[in-house]
Here is the input.
Amino acid sequence: MSVAVRARVRAQVEGVVQGVGFRPFVYRLAREHALGGWVRNDSQGVLLEVEGETAAVERFLARLSVEAPPLAAIARVSARTLGPTGEQEFSILRSAAGGTAAEVSVGPDAAPCEECLRELFDPRDRRHRYPFVNCTDCGPRFTILRDVPYDRPQTTMAGFAMCAECRAEYEDPASRRFHAQPNACPTCGPSLRLLGAGGTTQASGTARAVETTRAGGTQAGEDAIATGEDATATGESALAAAVEALSAGRIVALKGAGGYHLACRADDEGAVRELRRRKRRAEKPLALMAADLDAALELVQLSDSERRLLSAPERPIVIARRREQAPVAAAVAPGYADLGVMLPSTPLHHLLLADVGTTLVMSSGNVSEEPIAYRDEDAAQRLDGIADLVLAHDRPIHVRADDSVVRALHPAAASHPLLLRRSRGRVPAAIELPLQAPPLLACGAELGSTFCVARGRRAWVGQHIGDLRNWETLQAFREGIAHFQRLFDVRPAIVAHDLHPDYLSSAYALQRDDAEPLAVQHHHAHFAACLAEHGLTGPAVGAIYDGSGLGADGTIWGGELLAGDLARVTRVGSLHPVALPGGDAAVREPWRMACAWMLAASDDEASASTLGAGLPAPPPPATIAGRIDERRWRQVAELARTGTAAPTTTSAGRLFDAVAALCGIRLAVHDEGRAAIELEAAAALDEPGAYPLPVLAGEPLRMDARETIRAILADLGGGVPAAIVSARFHNGLADATAGALTLLADRLGLESAVLSGGVFQNRLLLERTATALRRAGLRVLIPRRLPPNDGAIAYGQAAVAAALLSDPSARASPSTASASGATAAATARERPAPASKPAPSRP
Here is the structure.
């Protein structure tokens, strides 16, 4: 008889393999093939050894990647042969700490799986209506993780000792809770508690918030808010009281996975308006949470791709077309054609939606412009005066993570959705770099702030924090950087930052004395981020359209045509420059940009330097006249004509503002981009016409929108509706952009075109530009794992830094869109680090 040949193999598995049931999967797979050995977490991911018949070992390795658990994402498997030891049994070992660098990819949080939801609503199950049910296929990960490797002592569940039943599940290889680190039940796990305004747990405070009228309330809710100064509401009673409050039109702060939400009935106009008033959120739309897909379909029209996005494990907010008769208060998203809808992301959300029986507003738990509250004491302080009640629990959140936001694109434009905010459910998944990077930190820009740490071929982009304009957001920014540096063991030698010295992110970078600063021009970072996440180093051409970014020439850029690679780009074209009368005031008052563009358009010969100097102030069009004082209009025209307090800009965002104002859609805004959003919402989607927008030959090219403005004024004067004007403007800009990029690609012999920058969050513009470029035979690169807005800037800075450091000659001769930042660094190091400062003004 022949003796079977035995083999032993050690395999290192890297990627998202911790906290996703990977070790139990390995255990079961090894047992199925009668293999001995062991598996454990380590600082690089999962390490395992298997021993048995050679053919069985080979089958095991072949199935390892193909059949991995649903939440796993294997980056690579490195295997080497060892000498057999005769080991027969397979076991899961205690995780190993140590090593020179943490290479593990930490998994993001995931919504409840179908099995956990079945238990949640099964009266016979011991976890029936338990708000913290989870298993290896779902539940919290990143937001409860203090350090790697991902084991219970390293999470915020460390303080909850498992009961005998939970421990048995945890140790049973046949259970889907085998080594599920957050495993818990009502006996041993976290529990709900209801707090009144200011954080009190007294039920009398609850009773005052809910008041005495509770028509249709449950008996449990009645019991929860009964009299008694020393009574508290916990568990089911706490949940019932929160349901009661919401049904009565109250505002409830709810502790979710990555922070607090502020909830109220979506169909209650008074409640929604009151939430806006208390949050000081004047115009931005509020997100909605529907109980399930059927409930979501009552609110929005959903394509197959949008349904898949809604149901994805990360449970993002999906921007979709509003139904005409959607049962939603007008104050939820005034002026928007779309609604932002998500499905429940935690068991607690499922219970709340099921008990309330209607869609809820589910807005971030913060005051406008501040980061989301995630610590209980912080929520009690910052949400006092906003929420009537607080539905909290005693499982700490270690890392804040707001909801991710995504928008589907037409298949003709892209095969992937457009990510607008990258946060809960997606962070901290690593994003590969196309080349090696030394340990570095990139600090991003100002709006929609994120940061990025990188080492080797991997970059970890932090979760969305918010606009970096106040102390609270700056503190969240600092905390996030410190956590990521520790979590992924990055000790940066380089700190990349925006060219603008007044951004708080730049000030932070320049004050660090442990790393060399490197300034990266804003639009170069946008360009590089898109290239790098597609695994490319270049070369390519690109259109980078946004509101503003400091250009290499000291002016305000924002409608840029670039050509180059990660290390160097050249500004090969731009929109025609106009004045920005009043600086930041023009961002808040789009009619100023209408005035500036009308002045520029009134003379074909007006150059970039004069911008209409010597011309009389054009009268305001009928859509603006009577709504703006004529004296103010003439004053602003004078600023634009003389250049006094009116720097020049090529901003595409400000061009959108001008057109929105000319159409009478929006003359003043609280939030940048609001006018452009309403202009897109107004567009007639079936209008084929396009305004002229000539691309003037030269080096650089000039996209001359003055003719566009003249055509718009002529149409408006002739009574053409704003819907038609908006559509023709979008079509004209898309055609001109595609034409300019095609011309440049032909001229330079390039095949790829990048579309990025915050203006390309506009689906109409993005889809039509991308479709035209594809028809011209170009490969179109659109951000897919990062947003086109400033949420991608940090990753782009990291990619540029890596490229420059790998090519000393490139760093010695910076491109026309970047600079070394050495001079700025020397100056900034003389300034104290900002602790609290007002919003920086743009140039």
In short: Residues 201-231, 606-611, 818-843 have pLDDT under 50 and may be disordered.
